Amino acid sequence: MTDQATVSLLRWLRRQLRQPTPQREHLEAAVANDDPSEARRLLDLFDFTEAQRRHVEGLIEEWERSRAHG
Asked: Per residue in 25-39, pLDDT tens?
């Protein structure tokens, strides 16, 4: 699974979460395992600004739409 939505999400996460913490690794695993609901749950562990949270939510929504049309 390497569609554009997940690639965008992973790139954004790696830019925002520069340190490879266990939480970031779990979030990346949720993306790799095509599990947007787990990714949403894990996002609550991060202290994102409101703008960051809106952006990442939009990326996850795009991911979910691409899954539905896959």
From this structure: 898 899 889 999 999
